[in-house]
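Fold it.
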Amino acid sequence: MGHKVNPKVIRLNITRTWPSKWFGVGKVMIKNLEQDVRIRKFLFAELREAGLDRVEIERSGHKVSIGVFTAKPGIIIGRGGSGAGDLKKKLHDKFLKNFRLADINLNITEFDRPNLSSMIIAQAMAIDIEKRMPFRRVMKQAINKVERAGALGVKVVVSGRLNGSEIARTEMLTSGKVPLHTLRADIDFAKTTARTTYGAIGIKFWIYKGDIFKKEEAGKGEIVGEKK
């Protein structure tokens, strides 16, 4: 029986770093971890149309910094920054009441290559499927978009009552190579759900961008990554 491992988790501290950066012990760690999960779930649901790639959370002392990487920052920021202010207040009222509003730092950053983000592409696929577009056309369009952006390989899997069929099934399309067992491979993975009138359709998306080789800089002791 196969043992499935999240491609991002298995590469932590190899080619990837942690999306949450803070230190906690015991009940503090449990509380902060639960807060982070709820904040991410809320932001991905609230800002779905903006195309979120990831949310990074840093805590230091009595301050918290939330970094939102998005393909369409203008949708979040709003006119005159009013949208960002409202979002910050929502985060404070829902999850971060133990912080002062001034101690919450919300950084909205534009993700420069949205067509190489598995999460942005998967979210766009979910929106198209919810609009009742044929799932095969959606899959092929997503693969073509990623290939044109320069990816070396891509794989997409959708499962559920596809096109409203009576029996749920799984369909997969691949292009190029996706070496999931190579730890130095830069694999971007995401999964999301399309909520349709005939049930939920799961979407999984893998993008292979190349290999990352680490080398030590001469005279420095820093480890830097090189893609080839």
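The first strand starts at residue 20 and ends at 21.
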